[in-house]
Amino acid sequence: MAEVNETDQTPTVDPKTPNLGDSTTSSQPKPKQITTVNVAVPIPDVGPQLQVVVEEFILKSGSDDEEVRTAARNDLRDFIEREEIGITTLLVVVKYAHEVKNADLLDAFCERVANLIKDKKVVEVRQIFGIVNDFTPEEEQALRDEHPWAFED
After folding, report:
1. 43 with 54: CB under 8 angstroms?
2. How many CB atoms within 10 Å of residue 145?
3. In terms of pLDDT, which residue wins out, 139 or 20?
4. N or C: which end of the chain has fewer CB within 10 A?
5. How many CB atoms are located within 10 Å of the residue 55 CB?
6. Dihedral angle of Cα 88, 94, 96, 101, to the nearest 10 degrees
7. Degrees, nearest 5: CA angle 124-96-94
Protein backbone atom coordinates (compact mmCIF):
# COMPACT_ATOMS: atom_id res chain seq x y z
CA MET A 1 0.00 0.00 0.00
CA ALA A 2 1.36 3.45 -0.87
CA GLU A 3 2.06 5.78 2.01
CA VAL A 4 3.18 9.37 1.92
CA ASN A 5 6.21 10.44 3.88
CA GLU A 6 4.99 13.55 5.72
CA THR A 7 8.34 15.34 5.63
CA ASP A 8 8.95 15.33 1.88
CA GLN A 9 5.51 14.23 0.54
CA THR A 10 7.15 11.47 -1.55
CA PRO A 11 5.03 8.34 -1.91
CA THR A 12 6.63 5.11 -0.79
CA VAL A 13 5.48 1.69 -1.95
CA ASP A 14 5.00 -1.38 0.18
CA PRO A 15 6.85 -4.19 -1.68
CA LYS A 16 4.17 -6.74 -0.70
CA THR A 17 1.41 -4.82 -2.51
CA PRO A 18 1.24 -5.37 -6.27
CA ASN A 19 1.58 -2.31 -8.45
CA LEU A 20 -1.90 -2.00 -9.95
CA GLY A 21 -0.62 0.31 -12.67
CA ASP A 22 1.73 -2.37 -13.98
CA SER A 23 -0.09 -4.50 -16.54
CA THR A 24 2.35 -7.38 -16.12
CA THR A 25 1.35 -8.03 -12.51
CA SER A 26 -2.36 -7.29 -12.82
CA SER A 27 -4.70 -10.22 -13.47
CA GLN A 28 -7.45 -7.87 -14.66
CA PRO A 29 -8.04 -7.58 -18.43
CA LYS A 30 -6.86 -4.39 -20.09
CA PRO A 31 -9.63 -1.94 -20.97
CA LYS A 32 -10.50 -1.66 -24.65
CA GLN A 33 -8.68 1.08 -26.48
CA ILE A 34 -10.85 4.04 -27.32
CA THR A 35 -11.05 4.64 -31.03
CA THR A 36 -11.78 7.87 -32.82
CA VAL A 37 -15.45 8.64 -33.21
CA ASN A 38 -16.53 9.34 -36.76
CA VAL A 39 -18.15 12.73 -36.56
CA ALA A 40 -18.86 14.81 -39.62
CA VAL A 41 -17.74 18.41 -39.48
CA PRO A 42 -19.35 20.92 -41.87
CA ILE A 43 -17.38 21.41 -45.07
CA PRO A 44 -17.10 25.04 -46.19
CA ASP A 45 -18.15 25.91 -49.74
CA VAL A 46 -20.00 22.64 -50.36
CA GLY A 47 -23.67 22.39 -51.27
CA PRO A 48 -26.17 20.94 -48.80
CA GLN A 49 -26.79 17.74 -50.78
CA LEU A 50 -23.10 16.86 -50.93
CA GLN A 51 -22.71 17.81 -47.27
CA VAL A 52 -25.45 15.34 -46.30
CA VAL A 53 -23.95 12.56 -48.43
CA VAL A 54 -20.49 13.09 -46.89
CA GLU A 55 -21.92 13.19 -43.34
CA GLU A 56 -23.87 9.96 -43.91
CA PHE A 57 -20.79 8.32 -45.37
CA ILE A 58 -18.60 9.31 -42.43
CA LEU A 59 -21.12 7.99 -39.92
CA LYS A 60 -21.63 4.69 -41.79
CA SER A 61 -17.92 4.20 -42.47
CA GLY A 62 -17.36 4.05 -38.71
CA SER A 63 -19.62 1.02 -38.38
CA ASP A 64 -18.32 -2.27 -37.04
CA ASP A 65 -20.30 -4.07 -39.75
CA GLU A 66 -18.24 -4.61 -42.91
CA GLU A 67 -21.41 -4.79 -45.04
CA VAL A 68 -22.50 -1.35 -43.85
CA ARG A 69 -19.06 0.12 -44.61
CA THR A 70 -18.98 -1.49 -48.08
CA ALA A 71 -22.48 -0.24 -48.88
CA ALA A 72 -21.48 3.25 -47.72
CA ARG A 73 -18.41 3.24 -50.02
CA ASN A 74 -20.51 2.04 -52.96
CA ASP A 75 -23.23 4.63 -52.32
CA LEU A 76 -20.64 7.41 -52.13
CA ARG A 77 -18.95 6.32 -55.38
CA ASP A 78 -22.33 6.08 -57.12
CA PHE A 79 -23.23 9.58 -55.95
CA ILE A 80 -19.90 11.03 -57.08
CA GLU A 81 -20.22 9.45 -60.54
CA ARG A 82 -23.88 10.43 -60.93
CA GLU A 83 -23.59 14.08 -59.87
CA GLU A 84 -21.83 16.85 -61.75
CA ILE A 85 -19.41 18.00 -59.06
CA GLY A 86 -17.07 20.76 -60.13
CA ILE A 87 -13.33 20.44 -59.76
CA THR A 88 -13.21 23.17 -57.11
CA THR A 89 -15.73 21.34 -54.94
CA LEU A 90 -13.98 18.02 -55.50
CA LEU A 91 -10.69 19.51 -54.32
CA VAL A 92 -12.38 21.08 -51.27
CA VAL A 93 -13.69 17.64 -50.26
CA VAL A 94 -10.30 16.02 -50.96
CA LYS A 95 -8.67 18.52 -48.61
CA TYR A 96 -11.39 17.97 -46.01
CA ALA A 97 -11.02 14.15 -46.23
CA HIS A 98 -7.28 14.50 -45.75
CA GLU A 99 -7.73 16.78 -42.73
CA VAL A 100 -10.23 14.46 -41.02
CA LYS A 101 -8.05 11.45 -41.93
CA ASN A 102 -10.84 9.50 -43.63
CA ALA A 103 -9.01 7.32 -46.15
CA ASP A 104 -12.15 5.94 -47.80
CA LEU A 105 -13.57 9.42 -48.39
CA LEU A 106 -10.21 10.60 -49.67
CA ASP A 107 -9.87 7.62 -52.01
CA ALA A 108 -13.34 8.08 -53.50
CA PHE A 109 -12.87 11.77 -54.29
CA CYS A 110 -9.27 11.38 -55.48
CA GLU A 111 -10.47 8.63 -57.81
CA ARG A 112 -13.01 11.05 -59.27
CA VAL A 113 -10.34 13.73 -59.78
CA ALA A 114 -8.05 11.15 -61.40
CA ASN A 115 -10.85 10.09 -63.75
CA LEU A 116 -11.38 13.72 -64.77
CA ILE A 117 -7.80 14.11 -65.96
CA LYS A 118 -7.31 10.58 -67.25
CA ASP A 119 -6.32 10.51 -70.95
CA LYS A 120 -6.30 14.32 -71.16
CA LYS A 121 -3.70 16.40 -72.93
CA VAL A 122 -1.49 18.75 -70.95
CA VAL A 123 -3.48 21.75 -72.18
CA GLU A 124 -6.75 20.13 -71.05
CA VAL A 125 -5.38 19.35 -67.59
CA ARG A 126 -4.22 22.94 -67.26
CA GLN A 127 -7.74 24.10 -68.15
CA ILE A 128 -9.37 21.74 -65.64
CA PHE A 129 -7.20 22.99 -62.78
CA GLY A 130 -7.00 26.59 -63.98
CA ILE A 131 -3.22 26.44 -64.38
CA VAL A 132 -1.63 29.22 -66.40
CA ASN A 133 1.23 28.11 -68.63
CA ASP A 134 4.18 30.17 -67.48
CA PHE A 135 6.79 28.35 -69.56
CA THR A 136 8.51 30.19 -72.36
CA PRO A 137 8.16 28.49 -75.76
CA GLU A 138 11.76 27.33 -75.45
CA GLU A 139 11.22 25.82 -72.00
CA GLU A 140 8.08 24.05 -73.16
CA GLN A 141 9.86 22.64 -76.20
CA ALA A 142 12.65 21.36 -73.95
CA LEU A 143 10.05 19.60 -71.79
CA ARG A 144 8.38 18.13 -74.88
CA ASP A 145 11.74 16.80 -76.06
CA GLU A 146 12.64 15.42 -72.63
CA HIS A 147 9.23 13.85 -71.87
CA PRO A 148 7.51 13.16 -75.20
CA TRP A 149 5.09 10.64 -73.66
CA ALA A 150 3.45 13.45 -71.65
CA PHE A 151 2.60 15.39 -74.80
CA GLU A 152 1.45 12.58 -77.07
CA ASP A 153 -1.86 13.12 -78.81
Report:
1. yes
2. 9
3. 139
4. C
5. 16
6. 180
7. 25
